[in-house]
Write a structure and sequence with these properties.
This protein is mainly α and 242 residues long. It has 10 helices and no strands. The chain has one domain: Tetracycline Repressor, domain 2. It is 64% helix and 0% strand.
């Protein structure tokens, strides 16, 4: 069985400024897919559905076989389209693979944003972000393999993904800093903080999330407690000059 059995709700139109191959940040829900967008023809909607199917199939294939085993034949067979159709949407196999991680990363950002919406306390927000990250891994188990192999097999997509995640995290923390949160941090320390927090997710997911046969485990509460304690004392303690 392919590890990621949930349909890949990847974004279908537009690109981000930081990643020419990344997809739009606006997630398409099942309801949005069912109802044609204003001004779009049935042919355009059908083309979008095929593109989504190819992304969905690529995520599942990479999750099961890795990038090396993600052939166009496997992807199109799982998507239910002819191999020739693939090249109507992507210039090459590598083109699709380079777009894959940034697209799933955008979905992850949307998932996390939905989980923290309305929370004003910065430490509580960070706890919710951390929990939401692990929740997304359970929702999209293939993400871990897609991410961990991308640096070698899809370096352009890997760089785009890191740029997207860091930019969004930086915007979030800069807004918080502007509102008086993060009192122990100077303005030029926000970007280093972003990468420290991103690194924490990377290594804790390797230790605590990966289970047998491609499955993803829920994080232990001891990890959450330790992370929150670190954030509470680290985000609020000390002065900007210390």
């Amino acid at each position: 069985m392919v590890p990621d059995a949930t349909p890949f709700d990847v974004m279908a139109a537009g690109v981000t400024a930081s990643a020419p191959t990344a997809m739009s940040r606006t997630p398409r829900t099942a309801a949005a897919k069912a109802k044609p967008a204003a001004g779009r023809t049935r042919r355009q909607e059908k083309a979008e559905q095929v593109r989504l199917a190819l992304f969905d199939a690529a995520a599942r294939v990479v999750g099961k076989h890795g990038y090396a085993g993600a052939s166009v034949a496997r992807i199109t067979a799982l998507a239910g389209v002819a191999q020739g159709t693939f090249y109507n949407y992507f210039a090459s196999r590598q083109d699709l693979l380079d777009q894959l991680l940034p697209a799933i990363g955008e979905e992850m950002l949307a998932h996390i944003a939905g989980q923290v919406r309305g929370e004003r306390d910065q430490v509580a927000r960070e706890e919710k972000r951390f929990r939401a990250f692990f929740g997304f891994l359970q929702k999209r188990p293939a993400f871990l393999r897609i991410l961990n192999e991308a640096e070698v097999y899809a370096p352009r997509g890997f760089r785009a993904h890191l740029a997207n995640i860091a930019a969004e995290y930086r915007r979030t923390l800069e807004r918080a800093h502007g509102h008086g949160a993060l009192p122990g941090f100077a303005e030029d320390e926000i970007e280093p903080l972003v990468f420290l927090l991103m690194a924490a997710r990377s290594y804790t997911s390797l230790r605590y999330a990966q289970g047998p046969a491609g499955r993803v485990k829920a994080p232990p509460e001891s990890l959450i407690r330790a992370y929150v304690k670190l954030m509470r004392h680290g985000l609020t303690g000390g002065s900007a000059g210390s």
